[in-house]
Structures are given as structure tokens and as C-alpha cells.
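Worked example

This section walks through a single chain of length 90. The input is the sequence exactly as stored; nothing has been trimmed or padded.
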Amino acid sequence: MTRRALELLEAQMAEAYDMLRERLDRLTDDEFAWEPAPGAWTVHQNERGMWIADYEEPDPIPAPITTIGWRVVHVADCKLMYHEYGFGPG
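Given that input, the structure is written out below as C-alpha cells.
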């Protein structure tokens, strides 16, 4: 990968992070965890105290409703994965 391509990818990652951060700055804990319907996928602590997001493989049909917290974690996980493949151990 060329130096210019790496610079463009790094700039895109930074812009995506900044946009996400800007939208989350005033989000409250209650808004983050609000469940719009019973059984909504969310983010919670497992028995070891680690924070995890609900998921199934393959995705169920129809897909479940998700909390704002679940969506935030999903976007962050994807961005982390892209960064690891682009710049890290991937």
C-alpha cells in the first residue's frame, strides 16, 4: 500500500471517529440502554464482568430490534476491525 493510500485511509478513520464521537457526546446512560421493545438486542455484562453485545450467527430472520448502545458498539467494533486490518495485526 502506498504512503498516500495509508494517509487517506487514516484520515477516513479519523473522520468517522470524529463524527461518531460528536453524535455521542450528549447521549445519556438511559438513552444508551433504552430498550425500544422487549427482547431488543443490547449491550450487557457477562458473568465475568466483560461488556458484550448480543448477537447470533447467522443473523436471525427477522433481525431483532436493537438499542442505541448495541448500534454504537456494532459501529465501533467494525471500525476497530477495519483499523486492525489496515494498520495492525488484522
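What to look for: The mean pLDDT is 86.
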